[in-house]
């Protein structure tokens, strides 16, 4: 891999949580993890519940500090960027679409803020509306149907697509998508996965896609990282990892999706 292409790099990153008041417990949620992702690449992080996927996401997003190790975006350690500069480059979509919206404001606010954030307040009213409408059309939402509504007046799938329209306005280099489809129905799930693929095509974005669903990882990613109890147990090109899993844990994960496994092996 040409090192110029590497957009995100984690180097020996660990996270130990400390909890409890009387009896202090330490949980090593992420244990000495290193991986790179290059421009325009979709990387899936797979692993069962509690394996440390969201902890990794939250450290990349600067929501959590790592206990040790270093994280670089475009060759610069993430703490060196101002938060504004950082979130112009790194954006997120989470599991619960409703949590990303404020119930008291119309959904438009999310896109207006994205325009302000990315272009400053100087953009004309007409240009602003055009950017918002274009981004909504790109995620197959009808601006006339969704603008002016409150979050509870849209479905979970529509809200997730709305958030992807926001990503199209900001045009970050990296998108962290933490289980973005687990709270929507199968139809909306397929739409979101296809949209993520389209986003990569349209703006050459790199995506860290977090899931415990092997089928989704197989569908969307170029490369896969398999996590178990905070450890990275296996990584490689998606086909290689899923067709010829080396680690017992990956083999067990795959055995729990027999139909996919059978299809690929037939
Ligand atoms: N704030 C916290 N304090 C203490 N322990 C935590 C905290 N957050 C997470 N953990 C623990 O760290 C480990 C990893 O959690 P994490 O949320 O990263 O897993 P995950 O792979 O995202 O799981 P899921 O698939 O359920 O979302 C788990 O053992 C969890 O209980
Ligand atoms: Mg999680």
Automatic annotation (TrEMBL):
Gene3D superfamilies: P-loop containing nucleotide triphosphate hydrolases. Residues 8-254 form the ABC transporter domain. Keywords: ATP-binding, Nucleotide-binding, Transport. Signal peptide: none annotated. The keyword Transport applies. SUPFAM superfamilies: P-loop containing nucleoside triphosphate hydrolases. The keyword Transport applies. InterPro entries: AAA+_ATPase, ABC_transporter-like_ATP-bd, ABC_transporter-like_CS, Oligopep_ABC_C, P-loop_NTPase. GO terms for molecular function: ATP binding. It comes from the Archaea. It holds the Pfam family ABC_tran. SMART domains: AAA. This is Trehalose/maltose import ATP-binding protein MalK. The lineage of its organism: Archaea, Promethearchaeati, Promethearchaeota, Promethearchaeia, Promethearchaeales.
């Amino acid at each position: 891999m040409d090192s110029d292409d590497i957009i995100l790099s984690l180097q020996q990153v660990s996270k130990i949580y400390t909890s409890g008041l009387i009896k202090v417990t330490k949980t090593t949620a992420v244990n000495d993890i290193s991986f790179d992702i290059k421009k325009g690449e979709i990387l899936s992080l797979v692993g069962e519940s509690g394996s440390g996927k969201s902890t990794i996401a939250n450290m990349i997003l600067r929501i959590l500090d790592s206990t040790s190790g270093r994280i670089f975006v475009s060759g610069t350690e993430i703490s060196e960027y101002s938060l504004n500069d950082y979130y112009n480059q790194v954006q997120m979509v989470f599991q619960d679409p409703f949590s990303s919206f404020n119930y008291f404001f119309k959904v438009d606010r999310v896109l207006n803020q994205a325009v302000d954030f990315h272009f400053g307040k100087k953009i004309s009213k007409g240009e602003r509306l055009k950017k918002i409408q274009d981004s909504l059309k790109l995620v197959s939402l009808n601006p006339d149907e969704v603008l002016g509504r409150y979050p509870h007046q849209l479905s979970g799938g529509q809200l997730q697509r709305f958030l992807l329209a926001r990503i199209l306005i900001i045009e970050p280099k990296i998108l962290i998508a933490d289980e973005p489809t687990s709270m929507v129905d199968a139809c909306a799930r397929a739409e979101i996965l296809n949209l993520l693929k389209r986003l990569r095509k349209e703006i050459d974005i790199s995506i860290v896609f977090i899931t415990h669903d092997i089928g989704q990882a197989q569908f969307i990613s170029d490369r896969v990282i398999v996590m178990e109890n905070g450890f990275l147990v296996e990584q490689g090109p998606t086909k290689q990892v899923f067709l010829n899993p080396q680690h017992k844990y990956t083999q067990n994960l795959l055995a729990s999706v027999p139909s996919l496994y059978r299809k690929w092996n037939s």
